[in-house]
Every structure is written in structure tokens, then in C-alpha cells.
Amino acid sequence: MRLLSLYSGGKDSTYALVKAKEMGHDISCLLTLHPETDASLLFHYPNSWVTSYLGEAMCIPSFGFAARSGTKEDELKSLEQAIIAVKSLHEIHGVVHGGIFSTFQSDIVQRICCKHNLTVIAPLWHIQQSEYMDLLLEKNFDVKIVSVSAMGLDEGWLGVSLNREALHRLKHLSQKYCFSVSFEGGEAETLVIDCPIFYKRLQVRKAKIRWDGQRGIFEILEVALVEK
Predict the structure, then answer these.
(1) Is there a contact between 14 and 62 (Cβ–Cβ < 8 Å)?
(2) Rounded to 5 degrees, what are φ and ψ at 2?
(3) Domain boundary among 97, 121, 145
(4) Which of 121, 140, 171 represents a domain boundary (last residue)?
(5) DSSP 3-state of 228
(6) How many domains are there within the chain?
(7) Each residue's pLDDT tens digit in the chain (228 positions)?
(8) Long-range CB contact pairs, 49-55, < 8 A, 24+
(9) Cα-flanking dihedrals φ and ψ of residue 65, to 5°?
(10) CA-closest candidate to residue 86, choices 26, 32, 160
(11) φ and ψ at residue 48, rounded to 5 degrees
(12) Structural domain harbouring 191
């Protein structure tokens, strides 16, 4: 089946794309929505512009659209209009997304796809979260934390690439402070720097940390694709 990937550049949308390919689907294109602010209910805010580079790294066409932020209906309308626009350019039969437990996000995607006769593929739905995080490392995903907004996750986590040691600390903190170890509740956001289906690796050449005392962003200013 030819699929459109709802793509943020983070671990979940990237791994969902990988799983969809393993299931035999063809990823026709990537779709990224760029929200106006970090108050978006549905879309990733930090570094969303980088997804065009990740599309190039995977040799998959990518599309980006501005999204109105603020209300559920505004964001639903932005997503629906973007899907309609891409559907007019590419023959797609379904949409793949990286949702794990968020019925809010899943219901919106289901609603739009049902309206436009598209199948929804959600390979990560209700995956065991701790095992999933282990699996990312086993599959050689290079995942960088680019925002934090939960008690227990301080400024020191911004820009950290997940490895065994970091994941061990993360699991401990998730139990201590009662947050989702996979960040399903928005406790943090990630960016995939490399994974098995990337033909080139993303290199972060310039970045800065923005921290307000409670939450922060690893703001990427310059990137390049380099040979692996």
C-alpha cells in the first residue's frame, strides 16, 4: 500500500515509517506540519524544518505546511488541508503515524482518513514503552533529545543522544517522577539523527540551548547530511 507518513523527525514517526516498510508498504512521501508556537496540541514544534533534510536522507519526497496552533479544530483543519494537498500530488492509499497511546491524536487522524477514504497504519499502537526504547538502540537508531518539559528532566538532557547509559538514567527518572519513558505524554521530544534506512547521516553543525528554568529546547540552527 502506498502511504503518506505523518512525519515529525522524531523517534516515533521514524520508527513507525520503518515498521510500515517492513510490513511491505511503500512510503510515498512525508508530511510535516510546522506549528506557529510550542503550544501546539498535535504537532512537534522544535526543529520541524529539519524534516526536509531527513526526507533527503531517506530519498523520500517531503512536504511541509504551516499549521495554525491554538485549538483542536484549527489544527485538525490544518492537517486535513495538508493531507488533501499531498493526496492531489501523490497517489496514496493510507497514512502511517507514530502514535502509541494518544487517543486524542489517533482520533483526529482516523477522522480525517475516514472522511477521505484512506487507511490508517499505526505500527506502534500500544507497544510496551520500555521495551520499545530498548529496541530503538538495538536497531541502531541515533536519537537526540531536543526538548524537555517534565519534572526530572533538566537542562542537562537537551542535546543528549540516547545510549545505554542515558536510557538507564531515563528509566530511573521516569519511575521516580512518574512520566512516560517514551515521552508519550509530551515530556520530551526527539530528533532522529541516523537510522538503518537513512542513506546519509544528519550532522548538527550549530545549535543553542533555550531554557526557562522549567523547560527548554535544543534549538538546531545549522545541519548537513554527511556520508555514513
Answers:
(1) no
(2) -85, 120
(3) 121
(4) 121
(5) coil
(6) 2
(7) 999 999 999 999 999 999 999 999 999 999 999 998 887 878 888 999 999 999 999 999 999 999 987 688 888 999 999 999 999 999 999 999 999 999 999 999 999 999 999 999 999 999 999 999 999 999 999 999 999 999 999 999 999 999 999 999 999 999 999 999 999 989 999 999 999 999 999 999 999 999 999 999 999 999 999 999
(8) 50/9, 50/191, 50/202, 50/220, 50/223, 51/7, 51/8, 51/9, 53/202, 53/223, 53/225, 54/7, 54/9, 54/14, 54/30, 54/192, 54/198, 54/202, 55/7, 55/30
(9) -135, 145
(10) 32
(11) -65, -25
(12) 130-227
pTM for the whole thing? 0.96
- Residue 39 CA to chain centroid, in angstroms? 16
The C-alpha angle with vertex 132 and arms to 192 and 49, in degrees rounded to 5, equals 20
DSSP, res 97? -
Q: Write out the three cell numbers for 227.
A: 556520508
The answer to whether the beta carbons of residues 35 and 43 sit under 8 Å apart is: yes
How far is residue 224's CA from residue 207's CA, in Å, rounded to a whole number?
A: 12
Amino acid, res. 10: G
Q: Which residue matches cell numbers 536519537?
A: 143
Instruction: Please give the backbone phi and psi of residue 7, each rounded to the nearest 5 degrees, phi first.
Output: -125, 125
State how far the Cα of 176 lies from the Cα of 31, in Å rounded to an integer. 36
